[in-house]
Write a structure and sequence with these properties.
Number of strands: 8
Radius of gyration: 16 Å
Largest sheet: 4 strands, mixed
Helix content: 10-25%
Strand content: 25-35%
Oligomer: single chain
CATH class of the largest domain: Alpha Beta
Shape: globular
Number of helices: 3
CATH architecture of the largest domain: 2-Layer Sandwich
CATH topology of the largest domain: Signal recognition particle alu RNA binding heterodimer, srp9/1
Distance between the termini: 34 Å
Length: 141
């Protein structure tokens, strides 16, 4: 009998005021599937998987959610985390994200990635990583 603990990543959860809308944004951005769990929760899963069978994104209703300020400013709501997405063509990925409802951050620090905001104000980055995406070891869709 194996008494060793097993831990697997289930999801990354983002607080927001409109979980169903935010799930729709990320489903469009990633070309994944949105699953509405109830009035307070929604999930985005990789195509062809069931919620929980593969790490996904969860969106949780928080009526008091305040989007972070980026870049950080003293006394303002700080970001606690952000998601980096690998892309094969940065400019096309930026256009796609904007078409899905994202906004481009005014301040940028590199030409290798773009800081974006989802419709709820969470920052995320689109990172030029063509060699990573084409690698047979890159597992996420």
């Amino acid at each position: 009998m194996d008494d060793e603990v097993t831990i697997k990543m289930y999801s990354l959860t983002l607080d927001c005021r409109k979980p169903h809308d935010l799930a729709g944004f990320y489903a469009a951005l990633l070309k994944w599937e949105a699953v509405i769990l109830d009035n307070e929760w929604a999930c985005v899963c990789a195509p062809g998987t069931q919620q929980g069978a593969y790490p996904g994104l969860l969106f949780q209703l928080n009526s008091d959610y305040e989007p972070p300020v980026w870049p950080e400013e003293p006394g303002a709501q700080q970001q606690m985390a952000h998601i980096d997405f690998a892309v094969n063509d940065l400019e096309k990925a930026v256009r796609h994200a904007v078409d899905c409802g994202a906004a481009i951050a005014e301040t940028q620090f590199s030409t290798d990635w773009r800081v974006m905001f989802d419709p709820a104000g969470h920052p995320f980055c689109l990172c030029q990583m063509k060699s990573i995406i084409e690698s047979p070891h890159f597992a996420l869709l």
